[in-house]
Amino acid sequence: MSSLPMASVTRQLSRRSVFEALLHRSPISRADLAKVTGLSKQTMSEVIDAFEQQGLVHQVGRTSGNVGRTAVLYELSPEGGHVLGIDLGAQRLTVALADIAGRVLAETHEPTDSRGGAWALDQIARLSERLARDNHTHPSRIRSIVLATPGVVNPKSGAIEMAPNITGLGHLNVVGLLGEKLGSPVVFENDINLALLGEIWHGCAQNVANVAFLALGSGVGLGLYVNGQLIRGENGAAGEIGYLPIGGDPLQAESRLQGCLEYQVGAAGVMRRYREAGGPDVGSVRHVFERADAGDPIAVGVVDETARLTALAAATVIATVDPQLLVLGGSVGARPDFADKVARVLLQLAPRQVEIRTSTLGKRAGVVGALSVALRHLHDEFFGVAELAAALPLPPLRA
């Protein structure tokens, strides 16, 4: 938002403070809003009247006031603006719709189209349109869309690179095509970064300023939150931990394409190592863990080695960024038994002990994080002030 004259800045700050109070204290009366914000009753009435005209607030009843008087209660209107959060995973596509107050209106998911590329983009558009239609949301009310992507967006071509588990995204202008299909610009963010933000907003990392989120499933990725800021790097590729030279020869063709660590500890790598060690073919990495739980010595060995390699990567992260908390997520990383194995190895490796927690949001972490970023963009669109760098605090996530 560009710089404004002082009177305009003051007016926008008044609007912002009222909106923040409504965001966190609804339902609330005009008198209580004035007390909370410190604004005069006249200014408060002007702001509320303007919000009502814009459709940002509505009345939700009355409450008894002093000496028998009643006061009108207000809250943010579900019609004030909507956001879409989209999580495009290798195995699962999730789309969620929320209103301006952070209320999740609907959420749906289905297996990601295995053909990838343009088919996956068509699937995103179809699922998003269906969600909006089923909830009587006109596309014009969807003011902010954020997509969690398994790779890195090339700013010149719009392609998604470094996403080997979904084919075809590296040869398409994904940014342009998806914006056309959804009828609105889409903000792209790394899926692990958004999973991390999801845990910070409404998961196991609330109120923690230094967090490392290590996700292990189809692939392996890292999100870093340092001193209250998400770390993206020069090209948005910070945290591509799958390329660490751990677990094998980083110069062999498979390692160069997929990343040395990911080639070993990603789901396909775990199943491959199980077969190479003499185990039978299995349909998914989950079966390897089930066989390990049942006492299969080959599976036990493979799982233990996967935990050891993961701990090596985690020790590298701990020594580099000094997090207060390490969160393990993903279909493999969030397994409590696996996390315990990683923690035991880390005790021998890391220069200091770090608290380890498993993700509480699980498969929803990415889409919850996408909603959090989409809400921030929407709030900033309405109430951002260039002279005030701080972002509005997000409300609790509500179903």
List the helices and strands and how they pair.
Layout (H helix, E strand, L loop, with lengths): L5 H20 L2 E2 H8 L3 H14 L2 E8 L5 E7 L5 E7 L3 E8 L4 E8 L5 H18 L7 E8 L2 E2 L6 E2 L12 H9 L4 E4 H12 L8 E6 L3 E7 L2 E2 L22 H6 L1 H6 L1 H10 L8 H9 L3 H25 L3 E5 H4 L2 H14 L5 E4 L6 H19 L16
Helix pairs in contact: 1-2, 2-3, 4-5, 6-14, 10-11, 11-13
Would you write up a description of this structure?
With 399 residues, this protein is α/β, with parallel strands linked by helices. The protein is 44% helix and 20% strand. The chain has 14 helices and 15 strands. The strands form four sheets. It has a five-stranded mixed sheet with strand order 6-5-4-7-10. Strands 13-12-11-14-15 form a five-stranded mixed sheet, sandwiched between helices. A three-stranded antiparallel sheet has the order 1-3-2. α6 crosses α14, α10 crosses α11 and α11 packs across α13. The longest helix is centred in the C-terminal third of the chain and has 25 residues. The radius of gyration is 24 Å and the shape is elongated.
